[in-house]
Amino acid sequence: MSKFTPRGEITIQTLAMPADTNANGDIFGGWLVSQMDLAAGVLAKKIAKGRVATVAINSMTFLKPVHVGDVVSCHVELVKLGRTSITIAVEVWAEPATSSGNYRVTEGTFVFVAIDDEGKARQVLKTND
User: Which pLDDT tens digit goes with each residue over 39-57?
Assistant: First the structure.
């Protein structure tokens, strides 16, 4: 298992299920990307204090497979705050059902834009929170 620890705050934790597998029997990469987008979106919405939309995935690296029964944890960290955009790093860690300890399986960088009720970009309100 890894001697490293996840960066950022845990935002989503879920269980990898059989319905989420690919043809090789591992968890489908698209399912992981979806979980990462949701996790990053939670932080982006909190920072923007309102609606956000994913506009880019700047990088994505799949490091190790995730298996059915693993506990999957998404950790997020603010990378950059722009006028209307928010860039967030996401790390996904898995804890196998059959052992203790965890390992990093995926990492990526997601970019969001704060939007108003009409879906148009709006300024991110910077506060001291």
Answer: 999 999 999 999 999 999 9
